[in-house]
Design brief:
- By secondary structure, the chain is an alpha+beta fold.
- It has one domain (30-311): Gamma-glutamyltranspeptidase, small (S) subunit (Glutamine Phosphoribosylpyrophosphate, subunit 1, domain 1, 4-Layer Sandwich).
- The chain has nine helices and eleven strands.
- The strands form three sheets. The chain has a six-stranded antiparallel β-sheet with strand order 1-2-5-6-10-11. It has a three-stranded mixed β-sheet with strand order 7-8-9.
- The longest helix is centred in the first third of the chain and has 15 residues, at 73-87.
- The two termini are 34 Å apart.
- The model has no long low-confidence stretch (mean pLDDT 92).
Length: 322
Amino acid sequence: MAARIATGLQAAGSPLNVGDLARTGTRIEQPLSLAYRGMTLLAPPPPTQGATTLGIMGVLAQFGMADFDYRGADFYHRLVEAVKQGFLDRPAIADPHFAEVDTSRLLDPARLAAKAQAIDPDRALPWPRPSRKGDTAFLAATDAEGRSVSMLQSIYFDWGSGVVAGGTGILWQNRGAAFGLDPESPNCLKPGKRPFYTLNPGMALKDGRPHLIYGTQGADGQPQTLALLISLLIDHGLDPLAALSQPRFLLGRTFSDSRDSLKLEANAGEALAARLSAMGHEVSTIDAFSQLAGQAGIVRIGADGLIEGAHDPRSDGGAIGI
């Protein structure tokens, strides 16, 4: 099979060979963690953007998010501005076997507190930043013993690289598109190097045991959707389906809109859009329950063992008890 794949890739112009395929393997690594409202949030380490999601939550931890109406401008403004603060650190995230990625510095409590202090409660930070594309599916699972999995799979864009390798029927992924050729960049292309990638499924532990399992599709939108969902679940106590059904935002470009604007789902309401615009956000409206705003899933495990699951009304999916 490896020989067929390599032959097919080489026929398509790829330099990958059987030796490259033989050197691939799974790494077992410890997740990153962050304390949030008495819980422990877990996210995958670099080269994923897990540190970005945790960084956003570390900024939000400095605010009394539960004190804000989760349908109001103060709530959304702080979420969006925390996302911006988290995204400012993303260029430093790369394969730690090739670049020094100091996640302890990125998630240092004093540093996150300073980022929160930099947020103007009444005014948006100007935001032109490059975006990344992707195509992803999320799966969460737990059993009666509490063993839990949070998993994302992606071939990076709708059809990956568009190459079916060697007549095998295997659609080859396109994650290498995240590399650059700038030799000064932590994500410069090199042999054997893993690219920065956006997948960052997560969990929240309560008293050391899995309480929330969550993840979403959405490339750059993943940390944004997760930050909103985590705050709705933890700060406001919404159940999984209610959290997934709340109006969402997306900061940055989409397939149909190249502006680095703040996309807001239409069901958030005109009053919210107008208030955010007055605060300096460049707001544009997308459809209610738009697939552009992420396609997430959540499992919640109660202290009594009750398991609740919900999938995003923005996409196909399901929650099944077996």
